[in-house]
Amino acid sequence: MGANTFSYWERTAFIDKADVIIIGSGIVGLSAAMHLKTQQPTLKVLVLERGFLPTGASTKNAGFACFGTVSEQLAALKRSSEEEVSRLVNYKWRGLDRLRQNLGDTNIDYQQYGGYELFMDYETELADNCIDQIGYLNNLLKDAIGSSGIYSVANAKIADFGFEGVSRMIYNPFEGQIDTGKMMRALLNKVYNLGVLVLNGCGILKIENENGYINLITSQANFKTRKVILATNAFANQLFPDLKVIPGRGQVLVTKPIPGLKLKGTYHFDEGYYYFRNIDDRVLFGGGRNLDFKAEETWDFGQTETVKNKLITYLKAVILPGQNFEIDYWWSGIMGFGEAISPIVKQVEPNIFCAVRCNGMGVAMGSLVGEEVAELAL
Ligand SMILES: Cc1cc2nc3c(=O)[nH]c(=O)nc-3n(C[C@H](O)[C@H](O)[C@H](O)COP(=O)(O)OP(=O)(O)OC[C@H]3O[C@@H](n4cnc5c(N)ncnc54)[C@H](O)[C@@H]3O)c2cc1C
């Protein structure tokens, strides 16, 4: 669209003169915007979002306020040092605290019902190993969380939840859950109140860095600014192919309300590849990316019969055995993964900074990741 199409008012009030432009209005982009404005209230901050809504992971996740199950910590310890694993757990723990402080527990419907890791009948070796390592992990992570009693065996509760085929369970009282939709509305309200402008339906196609200015060529208008923050997560490579971010799709369902639902909390199994929780008398259930990693390594939203069938099978056989349920919603979201367990927060070009790859844990980490990149840009 040519520059002259816009009125004087449109250019002066909406398009021109942003000091910082943030690309992507997920948790990270909006948290960065919030931090920029709280640190420098006079700064003109503009967020450009490709979707009609934020269209990546932040409005499509499961809303677990968690920092990792026993099996996930043990898997991380195979790839990273003890120091790195406890540093990341502490980062997620502080990130959750920051999210709650920034937005308020009521506004995000934060509930700390605790979290459970389930082990199926056929996973005795994994279960035994995880249970054996509880003492070690509680000790390793006690400073990260500020408590030594993080994980404990909770087999006695399996029957209370009505699960079938589950032989062992580990409990974590520090795990909570949020209403993801309310959290994103609260975050948007917060940045609007701080004077940030968020424009939707505006995909950035190209970024040009010239003479101390950055030009953003977009689907709607061309923008010129001094600094840019890239918060496009799974889609980061579309603009900067060198960034090591691999997309990973997560498929999710929500049932219709189930009278007398026994579940209350957040639940994980198969080393975190499956997760479910209660929400409004319904069950939210997602995962199965590990059934076909290659197929789920995609920027395309959608469902596959393989994952859908597996989720339905687990619902019938394990989570809600003998109960009638109907599925009300199916959706998917795209996460950003990488070899390293930490997010990428760095300068990619002069005056262009990125904060991407929350490795499927952005509810926990996103507030701090946004803050960190805002500090870099300031
Ligand atoms: C199914 C699922 C379940 C999850 N469950 C949990 C959970 O329980 N707990 C947890 O901690 N984390 C969870 N996550 C991960 C968490 O949601 C993400 O880590 C987090 O939302 C990432 O936030 P972000 O702001 O980095 O990215 P996103 O929310 O993906 O935001 C990136 C934004 O950039 C926009 N964008 C991309 N390219 C462009 C462009 N060229 N121009 C303009 N805009 C662009 C996208 O439209 C998008 O809105 C889950 C994710 C999924 C998908």
Can you give a write-up of this model?
With 378 residues, this protein is of the alpha/beta class. It contains 14 helices and 19 strands. The strands form four sheets. The chain has an eight-stranded mixed sheet with strand order 5-6-4-14-15-16-13-17, sandwiched between helices. A six-stranded mixed sheet has the order 8-2-1-12-19-18, with helices on one face. Strand 14 (266-269) and strand 15 (274-279) form a beta hairpin. Helix 2 packs across helix 14 (362-377). The protein is globular, with a radius of gyration of 21 Å. It starts with 7 loop residues before the first helix and ends with a helix. The protein binds flavin-adenine dinucleotide. Flavin-adenine dinucleotide binds at residues 23-29, 48-51, 54-58, 60-64, 203-204, 231-235, 238-239, 250, 252, 286, 333, 335, 358, 360-364, 366.
Overview in brief:
The protein has 14 helices and 19 strands. With 378 residues, it is of the alpha/beta class.
> Which ligands does the model contain, each kind named once?
flavin-adenine dinucleotide
Mean pLDDT figure: 95
Give me the number of helical elements. 14
The description of the largest β-sheet is: 8 strands, mixed
Rg computed from alpha carbons, rounded to a whole number of angstroms: 21 Å
- Gross morphology is globular
Give the proportion of residues in helices: 25-40%
Widest sheet: strand ordering = 5-6-4-14-15-16-13-17
Distance between the termini: 31 Å
Unreliable residue stretches = none
Beta-strand level of the residues, as a percent range?
25-35%
